[in-house]
Amino acid sequence: MRKRIGNRTLYFPSRPSVNGFYSVVGEKESQGPLKDWFDLSIGEGHFGEDSWEKAESKLIESASLGAIEQAGLKNEQIQCFFGGDLMNQCISTNYALRTLQIPFLGLYGACSTMAESLLMGSVCVDGGFCDHALCATSSHFCSAERQFRFPLEYGGQRPPTAQWTVTGSGACVLSLQGDGPYITYATPGKVVDAGITDLNNMGAAMAPAACDTLLAFFEDTGTSPSNYDMILTGDLGNVGKKLLHGLLRDNGIEAIDNLEDCGCLIFDDEAQDTHAGGSGCGCSASVLNSYIFKKMRNKELKKILFLATGALMSPTSSLQGETIPAIAHLLQIEAERSQPQ
Question: Which residues contact 20 (CB under 8 A, 6 or more apart)?
């Protein structure tokens, strides 16, 4: 069976099932609008560790163990782990895997990594290479600030377009059999460079990539925004979300009432002073593996598109004056197991 629809979209006839999922967040996130949906809050950002980076590693380890337990499985039953983070060489995930002892394929898609891990996990489960795959990612406000911007002690002023890196992690187990939600389609993104150089305006850098992938999916599948209960981006924030609306209008798609963004959902921007909203690998990961999947389990959401975006710069490229390329990966997720086409 050919498992490709159109030019870019992958089709999963076996419907890989999300069997267990778990979210862990920091103190600020646990005080936001989604506070009642998260599984665990770590309180202060050190999580009992002596560095921000070790705390982030513990975030992804805790989320992974929670997802495995919720799926009713043991570590040794997970045949592959797909995941990554924002740190150089993905150290947060790498170090967590020392403890988890699961076969590991590390990924880097910046803030799009949760979608990338689900895409790769679905390929392996649908292809019969895994009975159970674990997909996870994380970010930490303090470790990200230290690597990409300034030490916290610097006290730099953040402009209105800046987003707040989420301290959090989300993980889920994909299995060949289960009660869902189910992954049915996926569209890998292309690297799109809009020429943005401002590190404090990630939304502007990522919106064109989101538009490119979404338009490709609609063309490949013959669907439109009205076919979905929600189109969930992550993490364009307030600025990027508005830009995406404009780009879609330019391409003949009028205002989408069901467009939401993880970076907009996770914080109350005014009350919590997060400016343009949330960002970071842990933003879409924690929102998807709590609020969204729980609503899908309850059948409050029946069919969604999850479109995670990532800015692919590094501290080195930024210091060299490079622009910020971006990418967006998309998955169609359904609450009920529809019949294969």
Answer: 66, 67, 68, 69, 70, 71, 72, 73, 172, 173
- Distance (Å) of CA 251 to CA 46, 193, 245, 255: 45, 18, 10, 11
* Residue the block writes with tokens 């993980």: 171
Q: Among 33-42, 156-165, 245-254, which is the least confidently predicted range?
A: 156-165
pTM of the model: 0.94
Domains and their CATH numbers in the chain:
4-175 (3.40.47.40), 182-334 (3.40.47.40)
Distance CA 235, CA 174 (A): 23
Find the helix or strand (DSSP H, E) in which 308 lies: strand 303-311
Predicted confidence (pLDDT) per residue in 219-238, tens digit: 999 999 999 999 999 899 99
Q: Please give the Cα distance from 234 to 112 (Å, whole number).
A: 7
pLDDT digits (tens, 9 = 90+) for 90-125: 888 888 899 899 999 999 998 999 999 999 999 999
Give residue 53's identity as a one-letter amino acid code.
E
Strand partners, 151: none
